[in-house]
């Protein structure tokens, strides 16, 4: 309890200390120092003696210098106040007209005691709108209820439009995070692909709280491994980002289909927290899907082991119009087959739908 309180308040202090500084406040502080300096009548005295300079403080006020310093300080202070007033006005206007829409997806872990909206830092300015999509009631027991979960998630586009209202996209930030089955996370990504400024958060399983992705340099790239094939209508694309996919389970489930595998050297959970890193991995995924499309592959069976934020990011990058039909699979270790069902992404003529592996 005390540890949670300390972490929460320490985060607020860090956000305050690392916030973007206001130029007007800096100018006011500098100008106030000049005013005090001039009013006190204490100045530096510089003398030249032979071939060296001598400097120090003098207690005898120089009226001309004092006047110049005071005037500069007063002018700077006034300009600083003008800047502060304008910035404050802009921030107030943005807080009035802006929207911070927080989309929390609940499907596996109950995060209701630590909602995503409570973890959003103060740097996101605007009216905060809590948009929770809880589909747990549809996902308990038999996966036949997946259709109802898909319908509930498909309302997300409409709900985002209602929450945004008549506010222009430039004033809207959509923050998304969730603990949900991977196929549904990928599907959600396709639903928010054109929502403008989207910021992804992830659930930190170690600490049991929401974390924003960090700004950090790219790390390792995917290693590409693939079966040789010339022509194939259907291909399995496996991605090992947070875990190593079950290769034996893939071979049992998709016995007659060639395998293309993108993997990190040592995939581990709770490690991919960098925005740039995720963007680089997404670019590799996108290029691989496009390359398969160029080879006339018509259906991609996607087996994805990745953190929620990366699964959503992949879904946002997937082009429903120009890329092969894609089915994203759910992994169930004790099931036979190991990948018993998938979500087939929407097309121009059909909405997203559940597909049982035994049906093909």
Automatic annotation (TrEMBL):
InterPro entries xref list: Saf_2TM, SAVED
Transmembrane segments: 23-44, 64-84
Record's signal peptide: none
Residues in SAVED-fused 2TM effector domain copies: 7-137
Keywords, comma-separated and alphabetical: Membrane, Transmembrane, Transmembrane helix
Domain of life where this protein originates: Bacteria
Keyword Transmembrane in record: yes
Keyword Kinase among UniProt keywords: no
Record domain SMODS-associated and fused to various effectors: where: 160-345
One Pfam family hit: SAVED
Name of the protein: SAVED domain-containing protein
Species whose genome carries this gene: Oxalicibacterium faecigallinarum
């Amino acid at each position: 309890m005390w540890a949670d309180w300390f972490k929460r308040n320490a985060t607020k202090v860090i956000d305050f200390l690392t916030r973007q500084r206001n130029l007007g406040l800096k100018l006011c502080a500098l100008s106030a120092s000049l005013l005090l300096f001039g009013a006190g009548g204490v100045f530096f005295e510089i003398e030249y003696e032979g071939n060296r300079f001598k400097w120090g403080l003098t207690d005898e006020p120089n009226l001309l210098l004092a006047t110049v310093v005071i005037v500069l300080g007063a002018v700077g202070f006034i300009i600083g106040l003008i800047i502060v007033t304008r910035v404050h006005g802009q921030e107030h206007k943005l807080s009035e007209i802006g929207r911070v829409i927080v989309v929390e997806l609940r499907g596996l872990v109950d995060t209701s005691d630590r909602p995503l909206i409570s973890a959003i830092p103060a740097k996101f300015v605007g009216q905060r709108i809590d948009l929770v999509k809880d589909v747990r009631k549809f996902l308990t027991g038999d996966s036949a209820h997946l259709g109802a979960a898909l319908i509930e998630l498909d309302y997300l586009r409409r709900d985002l439009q209602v929450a945004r209202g008549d506010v222009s996209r430039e004033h809207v930030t959509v923050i998304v995070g969730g603990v949900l089955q991977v196929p549904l996370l990928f599907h959600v990504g396709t639903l928010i692909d054109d929502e403008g400024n989207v910021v992804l958060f992830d659930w930190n399983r170690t600490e049991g709280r929401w974390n924003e992705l960090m700004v950090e340099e790219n790390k390792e790239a995917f290693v590409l491994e693939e079966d040789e094939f010339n022509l194939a209508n259907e291909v399995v694309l496996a991605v090992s980002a947070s875990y190593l996919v079950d290769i034996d389970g893939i071979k049992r489930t998709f016995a007659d289909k060639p395998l293309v595998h993108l993997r990190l050297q040592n995939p581990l959970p709770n490690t991919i927290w960098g925005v740039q890193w995720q963007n680089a991995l997404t670019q590799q995924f996108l290029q691989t899907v496009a390359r398969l499309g160029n080879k006339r592959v018509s259906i991609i069976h996607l087996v994805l082991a990745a953190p929620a934020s990366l699964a959503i990011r992949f879904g946002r990058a997937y082009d429903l119009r120009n890329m092969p039909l894609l089915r994203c699979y759910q992994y169930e270790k004790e099931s036979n087959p190991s990948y018993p069902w998938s979500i087939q992404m929407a097309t121009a003529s059909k909405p997203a739908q559940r597909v049982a592996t035994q049906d093909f």
